[in-house]
Amino acid sequence: MSALTALAQLRAIRDGIAQPITTVRHCHLAPHPMVFIPLRLAGEAAAPMGAMVGTDPGHPRLLVVPQPRNRDLRFAFTAELAEVVLPYIEGFGKTTETIEKKGGEPYERCLDAPQILVPNPQAVTFVGLLGRSTRFRRVDGPYPVHPSVPLLGRWLTYFADRSQHPGSSLLLTATEALGAHWATGQSGLEDANLAALLGWIDPPEGMTGPGAAEEAEDPLLWPPAGPATDPGFDNEVLGPAVRAYEEAPTERAVERVAQALRTQLEPTWRLMWRSVELLRALPEGARVKDRWDVDRGSFTRFLERVTEGGPPQARRDGAVGAAARLAGLERARASYDVQRAYDDPLVMAEYRLTGEAFAGTVTAADPEHTEGEGRSRKLRPLITVRTEDQVRLTPGATVGSPDRRGHAAEIVEVVDGEVTLKITKGMGRGRTPSPGSVPEPGERVTYTSLTDDFQSSAALPDPELTPWTHGGPPQEYVPSDEDAQEEWS
Amino acid sequence: MNGRLDELRGPVPSHPHDARAIAALAANPGCARRALLDAAGVDKDRTARHVGFPAPFGQSQFAITRGNVFEALVKENGCAELLRLLRELLGLPVSEVGYQDVENVGAHLRHSHTRALIDRAARESEETAVFYDHPLFSLEIAGHTSYLEPDVVAFQLGGRFHIVEIKSFGVIDGQAEPQKVAGAARQAAVYVLALRTLLAELGHDPERVSHDVVLVCPENFANRPTATLVDVRKQLAVLRRQLARMTRVDRLLEGIPEGLTFDLAPDRDGVPTRSAQELAEALCQVPARYAPDCLSTCDMCMFCRDEARGNGSTDLLGRQVRDELGGVSGMAEALGLAEGTLEPAEGQEEVARLLRTANLLREECLR
Ligand code: SF4
């Protein structure tokens, strides 16, 4: 939240329609994402009631659990879900590229990766719990399941974990993705309703944003996007249908439950694909591809782990794992924030407002200016920028610029809206700066103290390299019989 | 004063506070409208329905069933399962436990019965452990006594008490949904405070009620219960502060017009005869303080949101937005300052400059 976004919200109210808060799209959008809308039985943590899933807007697959308290039916649902999801995921493992790593072994990376879209963060929690409740199941022993069940469980766990990684696009929620690009005239709490949020962004012909949002709050017109179902629907429609199935588990009884769930899922299915269209219409930010490359790398490593027969993810992270994970998330968060600002002048404007960035016009340049004598003589071009922004950077501060990759400068002086900068990086190796590397008078430039060096900063050691001072490498997690036979009600 | 409150409610029995109302007490203490409705024991849900703004708080039969099944399981055989959990959790050498269900006496006697039982337990410091199921507590809220019917069990051993709260949300690998735990802790704090107040009234040391409440939830994906101690000291402090701050009801009553009532004027079958319009007007006589949080805590939320929309207040968008706008409360005012169509009032120059800059930046980037 920033003053710019707050202002956009006020405009949304005045104009009766959501306002853009970015000029580009900051998430990756796959050519063929998989949309997954799960529904959960009310009152239960991870009992699936049904789902709609697929990659073709015209052909959703409806999955139903006619009696969600029945363990076998629940696992049958998961097996059926695996039939849809696993081939989609595994399809991306077929084509890879070889990446040369500086000072390291070259490695393989999948050319593309799967992308799953769910309606909201609660759906992500559900994906995680469904993963948790299935990844330890075994194909033999007391409660055998189909082999695809634990495999799907591991993938769902992976996707849910990965979605916590700022900037990752492997598993996206529609409400968050839309909310990152538009400001509506309602509160965050109300934006959590996908239909209401879309009502503001893209109201139907002849309707205003607030009008559409108000209509979207009526669960009879717009069923909730899950995983929680509308209590009224539970009590009046679903409850009786499930009871009818209990009394006589016939095809017709299953069809009745399926029909009921379809009415709840279809509207959301359409909203999901509408969200995809709206997001796709935005031009992609320059660094989105870099982040997707990281996603592809992560996906490839997990795929290898699964193929090599590694164990399912532990119930809980070990100490080192947890610390590494937290540090990784923090780095990713900082990096993501910077990248967005570099890709998008409207995001950068937030930093201009706080004085951490400024934009202006170059009024003078001394591209061949040097510092030092003899062997230590260095090329340090000087430029002066005239700006109307309130600059809160002090001499000596290092700044970067979204206009030139690899470019860095140091603030020399700030006087009355004139900033003098000394360029320190990105001029090439010659005696004179390489062409285009020093801004010329008249050019519009932006500089900021935000820099994205987080990526290269030293990470924690790999868990297997944990020094003995920190307890040594953690023991590999081996799932126990207890995990596999965990009670289910 | 009670006569005035009765008049506000009309000739129907006072509406008891359910779990949501109790948890919500601390949510928006600055709202005079709710303070008054609660103090008078007005049925807010019915009121909201009657003015055409029903609250979106339905409960699914599946969730209710699940909750009941789990609670019954924990309380089976005189709370045998609960005893096992408490023995492990509190390290108690108890082998036997008494069980008193306060609900066995008539509704009108429950409060005095609860008092008598608790008094005896505190006085005799009985060595046998006792569970008190369905106790009826009272708490002074906004200068008026409100009765609480918590879904909890009080546990006593040697004159020391614990509040036990049974919830049916799952604890998975040692973790539960943080929001749900926070909600349970807020509620439990109300019960701790109520029980402490009761002990103090009876002349006992209120500190005999532990600030560690016992939260009982199903573990992982099974129905087997697990118990955790939750320290509610922080919630207690917030609750105390907010109850103290809650404008005293007598002062609220002073400000409202003579003869004002929220009476639905039900006919013999309980159907309201009063016009919705008239009731809405009566409600608007008492100032509200809408915030988006109301949408999950108060039965009146849809009505108050509609009213706030009409007022063009930035409260509609939440506290954070208002903070970003430098505390400016009117939407038109904030926009006017940002777009330069409104001259800043004295002391507003700083805010106005920020908003103007923000607006120029937006325009520059979206050109
Ligand atoms: S919904 Fe209305 S009455 Fe309830 S707390 Fe909010 S403002 Fe007060």
TrEMBL record, chain A:
Comp. bias intervals (Acidic residues): 479-489
Task: Give the superkingdom in one word.
Answer: Bacteria
Show the segment(s) annotated as Disordered.
Answer: 425-489
Q: Where is the composition biased (Polar residues)?
A: 446-458
What protein does this entry describe?
Uncharacterized protein
Please report the organism this UniProt entry assigns to the protein: Streptosporangium carneum
Q: What is the lineage of its organism?
A: Bacteria, Bacillati, Actinomycetota, Actinomycetes, Streptosporangiales
Automatic annotation (TrEMBL), chain B:
Origin superkingdom: Bacteria
The name of this protein is Secreted protein
